[in-house]
Amino acid sequence: MEVGFVDLTFQQTPFPDSASAVSCADWLLPSRRLAHIHCVGATRFEYITLAATSTVFVIRDHSRDHSYVVMAEMCRVEKRGRVYLLTLAGTDEHRLNPALLDSIRSAIAGVRSDAAASGGSAALVVAAEGKFFSNGFDLAWARVSPSDRAPLMVPALQRTIADLLSLPMPTIAAVTGHAAAAGCFLALSHDYVVMRADRGFLYMSEIDIGLPITENIMAVLRAKIADPRTRRDLLLRGKRMTASEAAARGIVDRAVEGAAETVEAAVAMGEELAARNWDGEVYASIRKGAFHEACRGIGVAVEDEEAEMKKVASKL
């Protein structure tokens, strides 16, 4: 269980007068106002990540001696045949902050555990509700206290990507909306990308907003965007790529019309891959070797030659 604390106030929208959890949930969750929190000293906000699918938010208004308890669904996992479908919940921009990234990691850990217990092969599809797959880092959250918060975001994202790169099954991003900056990086970190053709784009916005890209993240991007011109256009021109163009350039595997159809196509791809009945540990080991620089840079343990040979011998 992971617990986080931060002092807060709510700008523009007043805090609800009622102390009931229901009214607080109605106020907070539909528009995900938690993404627009700014710090002051009077009110204390606590979040406790309990499970893969939800986070408990405890809001304490010390000035009025009220407490509010809210269960917020950040992501959910369902199983369709041999495919685990992890969906980022809500219609917001799915900005990546430690709370959301922790929830994604918890979901991936649950998938890993369930697949190991169930036996057989599987695949993971990651999708999102709303018009955004992810619009990148939660910069509003970071700017509240840059010296304290900004250093937390990149390591949290790196740990999430490391979980994907070490997962013993194929991974597929179902990009049903815009994927920008860190959200684009998250999508491209999967083994396969299925993207909605009639809406959304891939966009590495760092050059436009003046943010550097760390070497660890760049190592993954070099591995996933092999063509130098495509890498140049995404990273140095800030080009917004549609699904059709991204597919033509080889960084998206399939462009599909419609959001629901994109998810279904990704699930079908996952089922097809899972049907190959590959050994998951072997799959993960080969992935680490194929993307050695990326895995080592992002923090995935890469086996040395002696360990690899022992593993080969154990499979004979």
TrEMBL record:
Catalytically driven reaction(s): a (3Z)-enoyl-CoA = a 4-saturated (2E)-enoyl-CoA; a (3E)-enoyl-CoA = a 4-saturated (2E)-enoyl-CoA
Pathway it works in: Lipid metabolism; fatty acid beta-oxidation
Domain of life: Eukaryota
An example molecular function term from Gene Ontology annotations: delta(3)-delta(2)-enoyl-CoA isomerase activity
Alphabetic keyword roster: Lipid metabolism
EC numbers, comma separated: 5.3.3.8
Record's protein name: Delta(3)-Delta(2)-enoyl-CoA isomerase
